[in-house]
Amino acid sequence: MIPAIQLKNVTKSFQDFVAVDQLSFQVNPGEITGFLGPNGSGKSTTLRMLMGLIKASAGEISLFGNALHTHRDEAMKRVGCIIEKPDFYTYLTAHENLSLFARARQVHFAKQEADALFHRVGLEGRQHDKVKTYSHGMKQRLGLAQVLLHNPDLIILDEPNTGLDPQGIIDLREILVALNKEQGKTILFSSHILSEVQEMCSNLILIHQGKLM
User: Fold this and answer.
1) Are 90 and 130 within 8 A, CB to CB?
2) Nearest 5°: CA angle at 133, between 112 and 167?
């Protein structure tokens, strides 16, 4: 089985500061994996390297067997992510925002696909409201809808529960578990909420000071 994610001795340095230190791990297809560590442990830096937003100082990163430094475009076709908080044009509706993103990605987004996507993330009936009227939890749902536009095999989420109320956390959990069980999506998400990791995850990666624990 080719891992969905594989890191081999990955290091990221910012001048004299080593944020990630010879980190190695893999995530297999079809798993929900929690990515844990205290603030400053290197989680966000690792996720940014996985998405190709920053380059590793050393080591190898592969997604579905595609090395990021040589086949980034091919690897990214199968990945969707939310790094930090999702951002939208608040003066447009949710549907208009996703239509723009779909056009940019050259993804078909007709009414049938749109209705199914908004239903999947629990925004059915609110897709034609302007995003400025959305709560934080609704924006998180819309961010997940954006992630799913191109039907990725791998979903990477950086602290998706931040700022959500208890019901919002439960709703997001149910959406992610359904995506995994019904569509076989591989999910890697970082979180500080240990109970959510325990509820959702089949595997756990714990790092501290940039090292695998």
Assistant:
1) yes
2) 80
Single-letter amino acid code for the residue at 154:
L
Q: What is the mean pLDDT of residues 183-209?
A: 89
Q: Report how far residue 8's alpha carbon sits from residue 126's, in angstroms, rounded to the nearest whole number.
A: 44
Tell me the pLDDT tens digit for each residue of 127-175. Answer: 999 999 999 889 989 999 999 999 999 999 998 888 888 888 888 889 9
- Cα angle for residues 14, 25, 208 (degrees, 5° grid): 50
Does residue 1 carry a pLDDT above 90?
no
Q: Kindly state the greatest CA–CA separation across the chain.
A: 52
DSSP element (H, E) containing 8: strand 5-14
Q: How is residue 142 written in tokens?
A: 């819309």
Cα separation, 172 vs 169, in Å, equals 5
Distance (Å, whole) CA 85 – CA 143: 8
